[in-house]
Amino acid sequence: MSTTPLATLAANQQPRPRLPFSDARQGNNVPSKPQPPPKPQMPPTAARAAEVQPHEKQKQLPEPKKEKVRPPTPPALICDAEETLVFHKVGFLGEGGFARVYEATDEKGVRHAIKLFAEIKIHKSLDHPNIVKFEECFEDEENVYMVLELCESGSLVDLIRRRKRLTELEAKVLLVQLIGASDWMHNHQVIHRDLKLGNIFLDAEMNVKVGDFGLAALIENPGDRKKTVCGTPNYIAPEVLFDPGNGHSFEVDIWSIGVILYTLVVGKPPFQNKEIKAIYKRIRDNIYEFPPDIILTQDCKS
Prior knowledge:
Keywords: ATP-binding, Kinase, Nucleotide-binding, Serine/threonine-protein kinase, Transferase. Pfam families: Pkinase. GO terms for molecular function: ATP binding; protein serine/threonine kinase activity. One of its GO terms (biological process) is mitotic spindle organization. This is Related to CDC5-Serine/threonine-protein kinase. By secondary structure, the protein is of the alpha+beta class. The chain folds into two domains: about 70-115, Phosphorylase Kinase, domain 1, CATH 3.30.200; about 120-300, Orthogonal Bundle (Transferase(Phosphotransferase), domain 1). The chain has helices at about 5-10, 120-125, 155-165, 170-185, 240, 250-265, 275-285, 300, and strands at about 75-80, 85-95, 100-105, 110-115, 135-140, 145-150, 190, 200, 210, 215-220. It has a six-stranded antiparallel sheet with strand order 1-2-3-4-6-5. Strands 7-10 form a two-stranded antiparallel sheet. Strands 8-9 form a two-stranded antiparallel sheet. The protein is globular and about 60 Å long. It starts with 6 loop residues before the first helix and ends with a helix.
């Protein structure tokens, strides 16, 4: 099987390094002894992602979608048609564009994350230590449910809200795990297409867990390219927005990883703006800068 652009960096992922700091969603420190940092080259940032050709600058910016499809809310007692699987809904954890996630407990009191969604086929096939584990899938008369591994330390959004920004070493350790998961997906012909801080979760030991495959796509034949315009504005690759005719493939995840790295060490996405059209224009023209008050190495910037 041919390797993907992430293969070289991903090879450095084992054994999985632990984060060189302690942090947890509930405020309890996670004990861990710092280990020597991995020595991969830093992943490609937005600066090294595909440049938009000059003639593309004249293309009209796509209109942002105004409507959001929301899944239904599950009952307090969630069970399948035969009542062989029974879960008690505890509370709401979050939502993406096509799904909502709830915390629930089974009959033994074990905590799980349950997701109402439309991405069963792809997620069920994924098995990697840095991908949220698919545990069960069942349905009642109204809804289809996914039971997933519970990531107790929240997402990278939660981490940045607490920490504001990370050191380069901390970001590097997270990126090595994220790259390993992405390379594994790509070698199994899966494009995530919505990698962002809100879709990257952390377990109790602060290990990366990639989740939310609602926009994921399967490349069924070598050379196939997807043409659906999808993703999250701050993280979406320029070829998705401005070259839908030629389509996109695995490279859109690499672009998003670069944006994620910038966001971790700076504290906000590189193309962030209050207006979606302005974000798209900055992505199209590759306009971003590093704040002068944040000291970063050239390796990180490039």
